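Onboarding guide, step 5: your first structure request.
Type a short instruction followed by the sequence, for example:

Predict the 3D structure of this protein.
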Amino acid sequence: MKTTSNIDLVCDLASIPEDNASFDVILCSEVFEHIPDPLIALKEFSRLLKPGGKLIITAPFASFVHFAPYHYSTGFSKYWYEHHLPEFDFKLEELSSNGDWFSYMRQEMIRLPSMAKNYNSWHWPLAYVVGALGAIYFSFAGARLRSDDVACFGWHCIAVKN
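The system replies with structure tokens like these:
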């Protein structure tokens, strides 16, 4: 049985009951898609971090709905970080992609047969052939090419509070 006895805080992400500039580091991993307005969280993180403190964020660029009904958005692109972090007094230190379009497409080709079957497509057996061929193609193509400028699974961001 899991225990939650070591949890320090249970609160609203938009209103964390801690003093201004009280944290050296904040890690927010795979959360932004589950809050209605992630900009409110950025504002709160800016308030909580000390000058020079680090904010580490991961969020999906391409994801299916999960934890419904608490999945509000996807598509956190590198441009989202480049645009919004300076608004909240952060300097972008590192931004790296998790995967790229080829790895994303390979994943989706592998998922194709189960999706076709789950949604009662009458030609779902053909999806196994198409999915296998697509997965093989994207495995070979992705080994040579990078395309995170088009799509990826998500971004890993490190920003520093000014």
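Each response can be followed by summary notes, for example: The mean pLDDT is 92.
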